[in-house]
User: Which sequence fits this backbone?
């Protein structure tokens, strides 16, 4: 581990430790936050008892489906837009300002359209993440060095062959970045939707626990989301950086 | 000129799509563009609506201010030292991609159900990108600038104001634009989840009544504001960039 | 040789860095250097020999690990008044116009406005930047940007000018022209000039003396006197002595350069590499 990595571990452990002490000593009220060790114990019990297994599976599936849809549809849309320069020029300002709009506020529309079920959640999660994939696809296709395309012509490659053997590998790092972002946004979208209105899921369970003053359950589940989100995103980020490093020739 | 006409054609196409969906789904599900604007006009002519706007607006303004001041402050402190920057970057990025909605109950337990909780939500969302962008901008100041400042024997305040600040300004504005949008998102989600006032609340209560016209009307208003503000900040950023 | 006044001096100066992974890097020294007032002195040496470190220590940008650094008879602590520095990288500030860039140092030193304007106009004219006064660095070529940096140094009326491979990023022809400009600058300002360069011909044609540094840790292994007249330009290359001077520089430098890139030893008669 690098020196900075060690310092980082020390800092995080230190902060958690201080937080633990403040909670246990009563400086932070028990009714507001429970100590991290209690949170961990609660999470452990939740996992062992399997009380929330259905919720965990539900959230997990929703995130996977939303990500997959956003990635595939986003990629397809990116390809199409890249191939039609006039459309791209017209749509570019919209894509650029897309994330300025708090898109999540459209979730209630999907509730009304689909009812309170997974389809509404997946719909809003896809809507949140698809543009990141489209933008990354466009960048990836833009950044294929012209000299590689010329090389393809020297080898007299047909367009489909070139697309598979040259375009895809060359654009892959950017496409992966788009996938990573799509996943992160899908996760945020699914959890937020479950919070606001849903029948099941981890977000729903946290909100339910909150409304029923069950702090222990609530914090255990919160810890679960934090651990999963940080781990998954960090893992994807590590792969992303490896792929991007390949580009810096 | 062709760009503009292309854009208008696209825009018209989107309105047409909206209208088309309305015809397919029916009035109870998706109101038409015209009906939506009519509903918005009705809402805006009634007094209580502006109370909600003021609530959201106030919370948002405070959240943005805290995000900017806090974010730039933290980013600067962490960015000036190379080690602290390298140590903090993954931590900040992890916080950035975390679904912060998860932490909302904690905020509510700390701040209660009033406007301060909303401001906290907004600040939570907005501060992190501002801090990240500021920190990276400071890290990326060309070392030759620091040496030039030394060579010209500038005092620390001079270095900060005449060298560091102009060098980081474009990046910081980029982060500020993102922080602006995310603060708005944070405040709105907070209102949707746990509030009895504000535009977010209007949306959720309309959802309970199946009142899509109101949902779309309020969403339209917020969208127009968000896009206009983002465009304005973008222009500002362009003016500063060299 | 008449004894000229010593303008700046390094005595027994070394610079040793602590490596982050532990251990030390002996970058330079011990170095002895006595710069005569008004002379043009170049330093050549292989990559990584500590040439830039020499400049940093002389200018007060870095502290020597041992030894003394003096400028105009006084010890150096921090950058002294009267020293101007031109760096290798482009140090022009992209958010300021050329004029504002050149005026930058003067404004920070709270120089009188009229005086500032006068000096800035003079420097812009001198460096051929008058037509570009309101342009921004992004619109200029690399050579022009270096001229802006030189102009910015010039307005401070330095008595000692240090240049760290200022023309490194420029193409060969621009370098030759910039060399002539540098000579013109030197003659008009009567400043002492220390130029760090890796280009032997540049050092040989511009300087009164050339110091050759060894591979790391850098020490002076030779100082060559060129005896050029003060009124000179790049046409000294046709002088008969030019070849002899560059040959002498290269003789010493080739061995050091090979050491620096880890080459095999060269036979004493200068024969082919084994």
Assistant:
């Amino acid at each position: 581990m690098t020196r900075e990595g060690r310092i980082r571990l020390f800092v995080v452990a230190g902060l958690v430790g201080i937080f633990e002490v403040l909670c246990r000593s009563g400086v932070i009220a028990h009714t507001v936050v429970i100590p991290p060790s209690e949170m961990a114990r609660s999470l452990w019990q939740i996992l062992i008892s399997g009380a929330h297994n259905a919720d965990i599976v539900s959230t997990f599936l929703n995130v996977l489906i939303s990500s997959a849809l956003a990635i595939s549809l986003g990629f397809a849309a990116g390809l199409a837009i890249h191939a039609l320069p006039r459309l791209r020029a017209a749509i570019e300002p919209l894509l650029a300002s897309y994330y300025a709009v708090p898109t999540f506020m459209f979730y209630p529309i999907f509730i009304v359209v689909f009812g309170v079920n997974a389809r509404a959640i997946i719909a809003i999660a896809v809507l949140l993440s698809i543009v990141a994939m489209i933008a990354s696809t466009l960048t990836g296709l833009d950044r294929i060095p012209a000299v590689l395309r010329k090389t393809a012509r020297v080898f007299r490659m047909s367009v489909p062959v070139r697309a598979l053997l040259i375009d895809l590998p060359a654009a892959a790092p950017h496409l992966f970045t788009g996938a990573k972002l799509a996943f992160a946004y899908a996760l945020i979208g699914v959890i937020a939707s479950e919070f606001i209105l849903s029948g099941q899921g981890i977000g729903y369970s946290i909100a339910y626990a909150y409304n029923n003053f069950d702090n222990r359950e609530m914090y255990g589940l919160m810890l679960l989301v934090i651990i999963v989100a940080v781990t998954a995103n960090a893992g994807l980020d590590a792969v992303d950086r490896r792929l991007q490093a390949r580009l810096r020739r | 000129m062709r760009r503009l006409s292309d854009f208008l054609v696209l825009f018209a196409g989107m309105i047409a799509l909206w209208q088309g969906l309305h015809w397919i789904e029916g009035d109870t599900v998706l109101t038409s563009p015209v009906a939506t604007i009519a509903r918005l006009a009705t809402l805006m002519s009634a007094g209580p609506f502006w109370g909600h706007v003021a609530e959201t607006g106030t919370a948002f303004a405070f959240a943005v201010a805290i995000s900017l001041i806090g974010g730039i402050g933290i980013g600067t402190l962490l960015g000036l030292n190379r080690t602290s920057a390298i140590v903090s970057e993954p931590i900040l990025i992890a916080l950035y991609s975390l679904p912060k909605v998860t932490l909302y109950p904690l905020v509510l337990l700390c701040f209660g159900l009033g406007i301060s909780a909303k401001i906290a939500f907004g600040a939570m969302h907005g501060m992190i990108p501002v801090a990240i962008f500021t920190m990276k901008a400071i890290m990326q100041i060309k070392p030759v600038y620091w040496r030039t400042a030394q060579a010209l024997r500038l005092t620390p305040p001079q270095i900060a104001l005449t060298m560091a600040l102009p060098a980081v300004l474009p990046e910081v504005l980029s982060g500020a634009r993102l922080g602006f949008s995310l603060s708005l998102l944070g405040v709105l989600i907070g209102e949707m989840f746990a509030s009895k006032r504000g535009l977010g609340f209007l949306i959720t209560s309309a959802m309970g009544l199946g009142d899509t016209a109101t949902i779309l009307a309020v969403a339209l208003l917020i969208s127009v504001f968000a896009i206009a503000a983002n465009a304005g900040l973008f222009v500002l950023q362009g003016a500063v960039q060299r | 040789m008449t004894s000229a006044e010593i303008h700046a001096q390094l005595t027994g100066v070394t610079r040793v860095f602590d490596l982050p992974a532990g251990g030390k890097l002996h970058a330079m020294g011990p170095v002895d250097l006595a710069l005569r007032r008004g002379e043009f002195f170049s330093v050549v040496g292989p990559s990584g020999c500590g040439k830039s470190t020499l400049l940093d220590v002389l200018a007060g940008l870095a502290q020597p690990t041992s030894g003394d650094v003096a400028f105009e008879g006084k010890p150096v602590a921090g950058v002294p008044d009267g020293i101007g520095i031109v760096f290798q990288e482009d140090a022009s500030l992209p958010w300021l116009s050329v004029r504002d860039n050149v005026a930058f140092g003067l404004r920070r030193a709270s120089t009188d406005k009229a005086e500032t304007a006068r000096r800035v106009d003079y420097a812009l004219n001198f460096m051929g930047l008058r037509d570009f006064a309101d342009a921004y660095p992004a619109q200029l070529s690399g050579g022009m940007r270096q001229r802006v940096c030189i102009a910015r140094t010039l307005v401070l009326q330095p008595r000692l000018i240090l240049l760290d491979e200022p023309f490194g990023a420029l193409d060969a022809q621009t370098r030759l022209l910039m060399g002539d400009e540098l000579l013109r600058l030197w003659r008009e300002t009567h400043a002492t000039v220390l130029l760090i360069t890796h280009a032997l011909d540049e050092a040989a044609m511009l300087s009164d003396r050339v110091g050759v540094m060894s591979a790391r840790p850098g020490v002076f292994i030779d100082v060559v006197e060129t005896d050029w007249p003060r009124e000179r330009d790049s046409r000294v290359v046709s002088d008969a002595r030019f070849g002899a001077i560059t040959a002498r520089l290269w003789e010493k430098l080739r061995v050091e350069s090979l050491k620096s890139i880890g080459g095999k030893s060269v036979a004493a008669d200068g024969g082919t590499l084994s």
About this structure: Chain A touches chain C at residues 3 (CB under 8 Å). Chain A has ten helices and no strands. Chain A has one domain: 57-247. Residues 57-247 of chain A form a domain with the MetI-like fold fold (CATH 1.10.3720.10).
